[in-house]
Amino acid sequence: MRRILGIKLKKARGDLVLTQEALASAVGLSTKYISHLELGRRTPSLETLTKLSEYLKRDISYFFEEKERAFNTLLKGERLDKKAKIRLRKFQRYCEEYVNLEELTGHRLELAPLYTNVSAERMTEEERQRLGLGNEPIRDIFPLLEMNGCRIVRQFIPEPSNITGAFIFLETKEAAFALINSSQSPDQQAFIAAHEYCHYLKDRREDPIIDNPDIFVDEFVSLYHPREKFAQTFASRFLMPPSKVEAIIDKEIRSARLKFNDVIFLKRYFGVSILSMMNTLKELGYLSRSKYEEYCKLDLDRYEDYLFRSPTLARRQERNKGKIIPSDRFKSLAIKAYQRKKINAEKLSKLLNQEKSRLLSTIRE
Known about the structure:
Shape: globular
Distance between the termini: 46 Å
Oligomer: single chain
Strand order of the largest sheet: 4-2-3-1-5
Strand content: 5-15%
Radius of gyration: 23 Å
Largest sheet: 5 strands, mixed
Number of domains: 3
Number of strands: 5
Number of helices: 20
């Protein structure tokens, strides 16, 4: 109960953009005491709780009501079929194992700032600046997002399940997870990851989110909650900063009239899907509506494979595995837990989905 109270107090303080020092001063308590409350190390008196609730404009009951468990909410989705629920339960087990490994090894992730009352464009600029990215392309988005508190889970989910991505925040653990459907191409997975990362930065205090394929289509996204259009704008600018797109066109292509091979070049440079790149170029005025529609009719994958020998075979093999793909950080935590004798060899083998004797031999070497 103290832990729930601490989490709720921290959230209420954060919602008002207050430091611990400011809150302590306002209610006549020490900063150290506020810190202990938020860490779940102290139980406040009724008088203290009343002061806090009045100042933070919350009912006292707010500090004791535990939100319905996030996965219970996620699995209640009306449009989820039986197979989708099976996949999401597998996702749930992975998340629980991940948090357990962090607790066993003492390696917890700090949460990124929570953005409020800001435009998608401004949020993108501030987040890129905070991460020190400048306007350069992101070459490997998954570890970048994980190290900033959004744990990435890539899992094969069949098309009929209608799940492209999902985001969930485990409030009592202060742990965030983004689910990426690995049946998508690697470049589309990167875009989905950026989209879910936006939910992490802006919507993590809300209910869990499941994103279907329509959300990633410009013509349909406006039919959904406004946060989805916001996340689409963020993902596009986060992966393809307009200033960098314009600079590359000026330097390398030297023409405002882009041919399809120019679009493919840009798509590969930024590591995004062809449709995401074309949408960005259309918005920046480099592709007319007629050219955009003309290019959309082409066999995009075949064209790219022919010109650039894209490794589609390996991509298809990865899709067909049908299993969760553990992140590099998850693997590292599992090995650390084994080396510290927190888990046994059987558990390690199961977590990493590797044959035990060969795995142990590799670790010893």
